[in-house]
Amino acid sequence: MNPKGNTRARYYETNKPRKDKFKGHKGKIRKQELFKSRLKSSQVIDSEITELQLRYAKVQAKDIKTFSDFPLSKNTLDGLQKAKFTTPTEIQRESIGLALQGHDILGAAKTGSGKTLAFLIPVLECLYRQKWSSIDGLGALIISPTRELAYQTFEVLKKIGKLHDFSAGLVIGGKLLKEETARINRTNIIICTPGRLLQHMDETFNFTADSLQILVLDEADRILDLGFSRDMNAIIENLPPERQTLLFSATQTKSVKDLARLSLKNPMFVSAHENAEHSTPTQLEQNYVVCELHDKISMLWSFVKNHLKSKVLVFLASCKQVKFIHEIFRRLRPGVTVLALHGAMNQLKRVDTYNQFCRKQNAVLFATDIAARGLDIPEVNWVIQLDCPENANTYIHRAGRTARYQKGGEALLVLVPSEEKGMIEQLEAKKIPINKIRINPKKLWSIQAKLESLLASDPSLKEMAQRAFLGYLRSIFLMSNKKVFDVHQLDTEKFSSSLGLAIPPRIRFLKREEKRQAEREAQKKASLERLTQAAEEAGSSLGSEEENSSEQESESEAEQGHTVKHTEESDSSESESESENVRTSESGDRLDFNLDDDNDDLFTVKRTVLPDSESEEEDGDKLSKDSKEKKAQSKYALAKKLQKKKVKVNTKVTFDEEGEAVTDVMKKSTVDKDEEEEEEEVGGIDIAAARERMLEEDKIDKQIYRERVKQKHREERLKRREERKARSKRGQVEEVEDEMLVQLGDSGDEDEREDPLSFIPTPENSDESGDDSEDDVPSKKRRMVVNSDSSSEEEEEEEDEEENSKEEDEDSEEEDEEDSGESNEEEESEDDMDTGLTLQDDEDIALRLLQS
Ligand SMILES: Nc1ncnc2c1ncn2[C@@H]1O[C@H](COP(=O)(O)OP(=O)(O)OP(=O)(O)O)[C@@H](O)[C@H]1O
Q1: Is 107 close to ligand 1, i.e. is its CB under 6 Å away?
Q2: Which residue is closest in CA terms to ligand 1's atom 29?
Q3: Is the minimum distance from the CB of 89 to ligand 1 under 6 angstroms?
Q4: Residue 339: how many CB atoms within 10 A of its CB?
Q5: Strand-by-strand arrangement of the 382-385 sheet
Q6: What are the residues facing 247 on neighbouring strands?
Q7: Integer Cα distance of 413 and 392 in angstroms
Q8: What residues contact 435, with CB distance under 8 A and at least 6 apart?
């Protein structure tokens, strides 16, 4: 590893002018001086690191008043100071010391409380104390659930890390993989989204995370939830287990299963606001209104018209709604800028919208939940959740886009009548203080007539409205918590009219889904019946014993049924244990534009959720579900019994193409599963199950293949690294090349040099990333790796590699000549051959030699 720090930056600052001065005897002396000073600076850094490390053990959160009370490197402290961060927040005070000591951390603190610095500072320090350099590759990985959040974190890192010499990269998709590929394996800190990172792990030939020191999961509960689980499992497999792991979120996961996946080592749970009365920021004012679905759009319009001097963030359930509502608001011109942010937008537009909204003082941004977590948009006055959030956690994150870091803000939740009971219970259980307010209908400004005429004159708008209509219903249908989200409770005709549609679109997907569900049930039932039949045939000899056993089974079924129910309950009431000290909702009077306490009944609930009837319905559902489950359990248990009685139902032996029995360990689980499934198939061929099995097999085959390829790549990489290290020990040439990599962010220009982290393109400048005209060095370095992802075929890769290494050698020579005065000088002094002849004679001889 190379010595790091400012000294090197200073060296490069004056590197070019010195080039000419290294000639002759004086030049040699200068060069020696330079080496000495570098050696000295390396010693200074070493002693700084030793001194910092000695202080780690003594860090006490209660003693920390300012950032300089932490044992932090000068580079980090200066970076923080320049970014105007002087006093740490509570979560920073509590967690930074522990992270410096090397603990794995589960950090939880309210939204807007400064969790980003709580993990970025330890990341910088971790690499600094290890004197990390570009030759060491990837040292820190920060994973975010959305591109916007990754981008934002990257910006903060650039600010506070500008005095460090690490390279940092934003790997978030939305641009050509090749652009990133060329640089990724020289990046020390990667901030990424899971999908894109995995794509690099799979497809980028020379990308490795083998030497990773620290892993951060921002919004950890989201990253670890089902939506990302496949990607995350694959990513974690590629990370070395010996690393530090930091998990942060306002709604931290404590799921043992999640944490086990990350192989945390004695993690410290740091919860800055665990004993706080509320789980949302104290300066956040929270209200909710109950509003019919068909009144929502008019309500929103009225709200916006009444808040033209505010910055408002509106959350909607689907991309299609965001598109439609943004479009109609844009056309109707409420008198304030309206923007839209959703996942179906292209990356540049997404970043542009995000930046625009950040800059604006008054604007309305319609967004899906991609804007729900982590975004630190300055001065948002209102967060309107026009569509109900999936659960209380999503509510907390959405509402947390306002009232950040000591600032105030207001959040308004809009619920349709059928959502009120279930949602408010969840919020109360999560210690969220929310008041019910009522809307003054006199102040509601209906835009239905305008929408009708707009839609009539523009078929594309009509299409958008239809999509928005279906998008909303689909999102409700897909919600797992049916207590809150019941698509059948919605008046779809009125909803459709409220969007300006003359005829409600046909809701085919509902019927289709219901039909599919019924088919699945029927299939399940049929295969169970076959199983029973087979079991009965095979077990006829068991006689009366069976009766006894079935009695026992029904007991165990009852137990199992109980367990299932219990699990369901505990799932749905994840937060119920936290329900003490809940502030009950009271009717409030905050919403200044349209509140009217006297008119309580004007927005009456259309179909109040009647707890009795609801529970009856639910119980009914549950009963039929339970009975099905009982039946299933019973037959399964019966089959098990047969096994116990040593009635061998089926044995499957799988053979490979050479006729050998398959003993592959990785396949064992499927084979086992196959066996189980075979048992179920006794009565005939189950096509669906067979297809599933094939898919499963296919997946495993692919995985094995991927593993093999990866293993091969890993070995090759290791080999190359060893070679490189050996070479760098041997001579100065390689050392200069490595140092040049660090110089990538340092063009010699003072401003650019100040920001060595920014050499990886941000989405804004990604298009310019290929433009290296100002600096020859990066273009050469890029050329060295650019071929690495040009082919997926292994043979081609090997060829590429050979070419690369040749090119690399040539390039490094070129660079030595052009850009490194120091090594150039050295090369010259070592290789200059004094023939004792005049220059003219030397040239003649050379010419003759060439001609011969
Ligand atoms: N020590 C500090 N001093 C001053 N401002 C700070 C400090 N730490 C963080 N901030 C500011 O507080 C705001 C919120 O910080 P940050 O985005 O890290 O919050 P968070 O806890 O990650 O929020 P969320 O849970 O929503 O992701 C930012 O604008 C940040 O600049």
Answers
A1: no
A2: 376
A3: yes
A4: 20
A5: 337-341, 363-367, 311-315, 382-385, 409-415, 284-290, 435-436
A6: 106, 217
A7: 12
A8: 286, 287, 288, 585, 586, 587, 588, 590
pLDDT tens, position by position, 703-734? 777 777 777 777 877 877 777 766 655 543 33
State both tokens at 516: 């599919």
Distance CA 194, CA 802 (A): 31
Helices 194-203/226-237 angle, 10° precision: 30
Question: How many CB atoms sit inside 10 A of residue 817's CB?
Answer: 12
Structure-block tokens of residue 174: 């939305």
Largest CA distance in the chain: 115
Any atom of ligand 1 within 6 Å of the Cβ of 64: no
Testing ligand 1's pocket by substitution, the residue of 81, 86, 404 carrying the most ligand atoms inside 8 A of its CB is: 404
400 lines ligand 1 (CB under 6 A): yes
Does any ligand 1 atom lie closer than 6 A to the CB of residue 148? Answer: no
For residue 110, report the distance from its CA to the centre of ligand 1, in Å: 10
Phi, psi for residue 435 in degrees, rounded to 5: -110, 145
Whether 72 and 128 have beta carbons less than 8 Å apart is answered as no
pTM of the model: 0.64
Residues in the chain: 852
CB 298 within 8 A of CB 444: yes
Residue to substitute in 90, 96, 116, 160 for testing ligand 1 pocket (most ligand atoms within 8 angstroms of CB):
116
Side by side, the strands of the sheet bearing 140-143 are 168-171, 189-192, 140-143, 214-218, 244-249, 105-108, 268-271
Which residues is 269 bridged to in the sheet?
106
The residue ranges of the chain whose pLDDT is under 50 are: 1-19, 542-634, 647-651, 653-686, 731-835, 852
**Residues 310/147, Cβ–Cβ less than 8 Å:** no
Q: Which residue has the tokens 């220009």?
A: 749
Looking at this protein, which amino acid is placed at residue 240?
P
Nearest ligand 1 atom to the CA of 113 is: 21
Q: From atom 22 of ligand 1, which residue's Cα is the shortest distance away?
A: 115
Tens-place pLDDT, residues 216-243: 999 999 999 888 989 999 999 999 999 9
Nearest Cα neighbor of 739 from 248, 35, 32 is 35
Tokens of 764: 């804004």
